[in-house]
Design a protein that fits this description.
This protein is mainly β. It has three helices and 22 strands. Strands 1, 2, 7, 8, 9, 11 and 22 form a seven-stranded mixed β-sheet that branches. It starts with 21 loop residues before the first strand and ends in an 18-residue tail after the last strand.
Amino acid sequence: MSDPEPKPSTNTPDNEMEGVNTLKTWRQVPPTHYILKIESFSSLVRILQKIKLHNYESKEFKASGYNWKLLLYPVGDEKRNGSGHISLYLKIMNPPRWGIGALLIFFIYDQLKDKYLSIQDMEVRRFTDTENEWGLSQLVSLNCFRNDSNGYLIKDSCVFGVEVFVLESRGKRVCFRTLYEQSKKVYIWNVEKFSALKETGHFSEPFPVGDYIWKFHLHRKGRCLSIYLCLHDQPEFPPGWKMHVEFKLSINDQVHTNNSEKKTKRGNAWFSALDTAWGFPYFIKFDDLETSTSLIVRDAMKIEVQILSISGHEYFLDNLKYQEKQNIDTSSQSAENEDDFPGEMDVPT
């Protein structure tokens, strides 16, 4: 039996992400800044034990204007509550004396799904001379990692990655705050002539929530119905702009007053200039829609969204400035397919 989904540690020291401030999503796009491929995981463990080291340091790479190393603890970082897990950290090389703030995303590759599990930090982390490492002591349990059916370790090979987005504040301030708090208001889209839905899908009329304009995207994906929430015709975003959104998408019950057959999924996603749509590629099976007597009535469906919160960066004098470089490290010397997460989210394909 597979372990539950990987969870970052919630009992962590000061220089480690806390689980309550991270967001886990699946994506097919490889990490932008750095990929670490281990060709022989067992050899890596054996070599580190032989030379009495606890971690493997990647080669130095440049991202967002600074030099970094990825630190992998293949049997866990015991000093930071990582025993029995894979631990993964990002280390800055020669930070400026005033320090820098950065947003971090760590990755582990599921070779069976051909997707990356991304664990995104919702906090800006401060890298200095004394605090030059940040990361996850419990990226994934070793039991889950070593289980072939989870897809992380296949034929003794595994892949990790990282993206780092540096805040160039030059002494000016930036904070991450909630821009829009939970509201009971919902937007409902009445989808008529549902049976005539095209493979390419259908967009709703735009609607405003929290100073942004949104729309739905509804389309078929095999024998499933996909529903996405999309940003609509926004002005040009500053480089590196990101916004975290919590929302609920529902297909309403049109018959029962207690909404007993209402189908709801909750989403957590980072919207950006590149990722303007997030949602559920397998929201519901068409078999379930066809057997239901309340979700489609007179060939019409009612789609509902409730945006619970919108969080982003409040800028003081400067915007975020990102630089992107891609590097790949293949370690030849060293040398969970979990079920889809409930309500697995993805970008439209």
